[in-house]
Amino acid sequence: MVSNTRELIRTPLSQFPETSSVIHREQQLAHRAYPANVTFNDLIRANKRKSVMLMIGMSMLLVVVGGLLTAAIVGYTGGDAEAMIPSIILGAVAAGVIAIIASTWSFFGGSNAILKISGAVEIPRETDPQLHNVVEELAIAAGIPKPRVFVINDTALNAFATGRDPQHAAVAITVGLRQQLSRDELAGVMAHELSHIRHFDIRFAMLMATMVGLIVFACDAFWRVLRIGMFTGAGRRSSGGKQGGNPALIVILVIAVVLAIIAPILAMMIRFAMSRQREYLADAGAVELTRYPQGLISALEKLGACHEPLEVANRATAHLYIVNPLKSAMKGEGHELNSVFRTHPPLHDRIARLQALIQ
To answer: Of the listed 136, 185, 193, 288, which one is catalytic?
Structure first.
């Protein structure tokens, strides 16, 4: 089967008229803004560039948040105007240092932490040879090393990929999903996850989650200081004193309050929007690897019919999974809702895009 896969890779898409049409139409559906001659390699390169730009933007946002919130806290607790600029610099530098440390840890240790949090256990080939064979064949087709294979002992239906790059990647699938999938369906799900690896979504997802987490933490800490100041009277003493009435201090405090409200929401909206976009691209990548849209369609239908949440998942890891694993997404038409605060696009939309390829 591996040798057959190698032959398939070397065969031009023009030799597969139906497949060529499938890939072309999926690219048109999922990426209407791109010219018709755009290839998956072009999309992957664009994905990397966008990732770098977004990470730079999120880092700058974190630095600004750190500087302004620190200055606002100093002013709120009785600091004078002369302390504002040093406070801004100190807060910005501290935020930058923390961002570097947290990103470095996430880059080198984030995937192992995610696997442990998710209760994933690595399995040898002899335990599930079919799963390993499918992953290996798809990895060859994708031109990446075979990732490590894990299972999660849970009856919920889900799967995810993680790692910092294709050379240090892993795929995980729940026992419940593994038991319910046919080989074609399994290939569709694993192709989707390997597409995330191939597109470097796994690295972006970890670093973006780290940045968003730091921004939310900084803003939450700011609100806690304000509440403590209200209880202790520090804020009243500052605002009632001569220095507290300084217009510059008031302006910084107002800006900090507004930023503390907007920054976490904006950061999470950006993170979710990118996550939804990458799900569409991973679906398209799965079609390119398997040449069989129906396999992924059938798997997604089974995933959508499941209303059992994944107990080990949380809001920090939800975006990694092929469908939202949280209890909130399992209620009613949770998988079908379209919102800027959703980590995944509506399931019916993903399925409709894939069904269009076989009509």
So the answer is: 193
pLDDT at 168: 93
The torsion region of residue 200 among left (phi > 0), alpha (psi -120 to 50) and beta comes to left
Render pLDDT for 221-239 as a digit per residue (tens, 0 to 9): 888 877 776 655 555 555 5
Tell me the C-alpha distance between 274 and 92, whole Å. Answer: 26
Alpha carbon of 215 to those of 59, 185, 281, 285, 359: distances in Å?
Answer: 9, 39, 27, 32, 45
> Which of 199, 176, 214 lies closest to 46 in space, CA to CA?
199
Structure confidence at residue 11 (pLDDT): 37
**SS3 assignment, position 251:** helix
Q: What is the pLDDT, as a whole number, of residue 141?
A: 93
Tokens 């220095």 correspond to 243
Q: How far is CA 105 from CA 57, 59, 173, 314, in A?
A: 20, 15, 25, 20
pLDDT of residue 181: 95
In the residue annotation, 185 being an active-site residue is answered as: no
How far apart are alpha carbons 16 and 18 in whole angstroms?
6
For residue 174, what is the enclosing H or E element? strand 169-174
Predicted pLDDT at 336: 65
Say if CB 198 and CB 171 are below 8 A apart: no
Pairing label, strands 148-152, 159-163: unpaired
Q: Which residues of the chain have pLDDT under 50?
A: 1-34, 241-244
Cα gap 34→283, rounded to integer Å: 17
The pLDDT, as a whole number, for residue 225 is 79
- The answer to whether 249 and 84 are in contact (CB under 8 A) is yes
Q: What's 2's DSSP letter?
A: H
Amino acid in the structure at residue 252:
I
